[in-house]
Amino acid sequence: MSLPFTLLIDPVPADSERTTFEDTFHEMESAAPALRVGELSTQRGDGIFETLSVVNGHPQEVEPHIARLCNSAQICDLPVPNSAQWRAAISYAVARLPHEGELALKFVLSRGVESGPAPTAWLHATRAADFSAARRNGVRVITLDRGYPRGVAERAPWLLMGAKTLSYAVNMAALREAHRRGADDTIFLTTDDYVMEGPTSSVILRTGGVYVTPAPSGAILHGTTQQSMFDYLRDQGEKVEYRDVTIDELRQADAAWLVSSVRLAVAITALDGEPMRTDQPLTAALNAYLLARTA
Ligand code: PLP
């Protein structure tokens, strides 16, 4: 099967007794129209998604991605996803996709068509963007104010901060702002100067010999790649920690990374124009580990 690959899915309720789902999957021609104009995903960005990496035929971190889809659904009052159906859809797609190289597999659950009977779901696979230079050379990052204080998720849950929604216009605008300022990527800060996350990545830093990431306490996503990286570091006997991180602490870190499913780990080489220390041997080891995952 050539890429891109699109599978429309008739979502099955989570409490269904079904164990087979193939009749709910509809393969689409890549150029064929697939969504209705009344789709709330396209009209309002009202839906949720996940993107996982497929490396040499192995979909990575399937269970953490499905778990986060379920968490996003709960935050957004969407029907509970049927995890078995999503698992089956991912396997169905992977069996039909090229078994060499890196692919990005996105899966989406939208609220569906206005006053329609059911949510809309689909899966879409493409070749992954080439991150090899960023993995080798790192990225220059700027910080940008996200406009909310620490604790915003508890105070204003309707902002859906901890859900991976389709409303990524702000995230994309932040990346364009980074490019305008001559950088490659962005880290969002709270109005009171705590580190949040990148527009499409988690932030990890090493300080005082401990690997730290901002606690996913509702205002940011709990990154699946960050969790894999912490597993690797723990296995190496390193200390890892979730806690609040101030921008000053990030500026003084021994090393820092942006991590996400398809890019994997890239070192931050400069922050707001100031050079950052890096650990390229560790970055290379991390990426070798992340690429070799087979589950
Ligand atoms: N935070 C945001 C806002 C993201 O969009 C992403 C991934 O796209 C991440 C964090 C990293 O998540 P993961 O490692 O599961 O890809």
Automatic annotation (TrEMBL):
It is an enzyme of class 4 (lyase). One of its GO terms (biological process) is carboxylic acid biosynthetic process. GO terms for cellular component: cytosol. Pfam families: Aminotran_4 (PF01063). Keywords: Aminotransferase, Lyase, Transferase. InterPro entries: Aminotrans_IV, Aminotransferase-like, BCAT-like_C, BCAT-like_N, Class-IV_PLP-Dep_Aminotrnsfr. SUPFAM superfamilies: D-aminoacid aminotransferase-like PLP-dependent enzymes. PANTHER family: AMINO-ACID AMINOTRANSFERASE, AMINODEOXYCHORISMATE LYASE. The lineage of its organism: Bacteria, Bacillati, Actinomycetota, Actinomycetes, Micrococcales. This is 4-amino-4-deoxychorismate lyase. It comes from Cryobacterium roopkundense. One of its GO terms (molecular function) is 4-amino-4-deoxychorismate lyase activity. Its EC number is 4.1.3.38. Belongs to the class-IV pyridoxal-phosphate-dependent aminotransferase family.
